Amino acid sequence: MRAGELDRRIVVETITDAVSSSGAPYGTISNFATVFASVKPIRGAETLGGDMETPLADTRFRIRPLSGLTAKHRIRYGADRFDIVEIKELGRGEGLEILAKSGAEMGD
Q: What is the pTM of this model?
């Protein structure tokens, strides 16, 4: 993966479940890592759920290897947030390809 291809900055976020003093559940968000990435919109595979088609992924991010990254993280790119659908290794540890779906709630 060439460095020139990684021309966008993204933030990988961690969401941690917590409980307020009144017992109400909520999630806290913290930054896991800020990295450079290539970002490309894709046509995601679709799955049929009843009569509805649901896109599995609509954006592909490629980054250098990032230890500890899992599908439980999410990505913030500009004002948009993306839920991670799948993470694939590129080559022999050259980098990671992250397939993600846009639409994570901005209020999170």
A: 0.78
